[in-house]
Amino acid sequence: MENKVKVGTIFQCSWGYEQTNVDFFKCVGFTPCFMKYVKVETVTVENRGSGVDYVVPGRKESTKVYKAKIKNYSGEPGFAPNTYSWAGYWDGKPTYQTAAGWGH
């Protein structure tokens, strides 16, 4: 799985209860056993009203570097950035998120 991920690969993670939040992460390197990644800002590119936003990764990146073990999920690489979510490949398209004020 590790050879499917390159430096610069963007991952997305949708999570939440009664609202959908989206986090983006970027691969910035590797150790012998782990992928190193940073969190990337989430930017709204479209608001469709009624509590619906579409978001993409922005340019700002966290300076804090995390490590995670890459795992196989339905044939694609991903990782668990925390205990309650899973991050998989971002497909390059704006992603649904609950709009600010509608649960955030």
> What does the largest sheet look like?
9 strands, antiparallel
The overall strand count is 9
Category from helices, strands and their pairing: mainly beta
Measured as a percent range, the helix fraction is under 10%
Order of helices and strands: EEEEEEEEE
Q: What is the 3D form?
A: elongated
Question: Could you report the average pLDDT, rounded to the nearest whole number?
Answer: 91
What is the rounded Rg? 14 Å
Q: Which strand-content bin applies to the residues?
A: over 45%
Counted by DSSP, the helix tally is: 0
Low-confidence stretches: none
Give the termini separation: 34 Å
Describe the protein's architecture and organization:
This protein has strands at about 10-15, 20-30, 35-50, 50-60, 65-70, 70-75, 75-80, 85-90, 95-100. Strands 1, 2, 3, 4, 5, 6, 7, 8 and 9 form a 9-stranded antiparallel β-sheet that branches. By secondary structure, it is an all-beta fold.
Give the key terms.
104 residues; mainly beta; 9-stranded antiparallel β-sheet; 0% helix; elongated
Layout of helices and strands:
Layout: E1 10-15, E2 21-30, E3 35-49, E4 52-61, E5 66-68, E6 71-73, E7 76-82, E8 85-89, E9 95-98
Antiparallel strand pairs: 1-2, 1-8, 2-3, 3-4, 3-5, 4-9, 6-7, 7-8
Provide a compact summary of the structure.
This protein has 104 residues and is an all-beta fold. The chain has strands at residues 10-15, 21-30, 35-49, 52-61, 66-68, 71-73, 76-82, 85-89, 95-98.
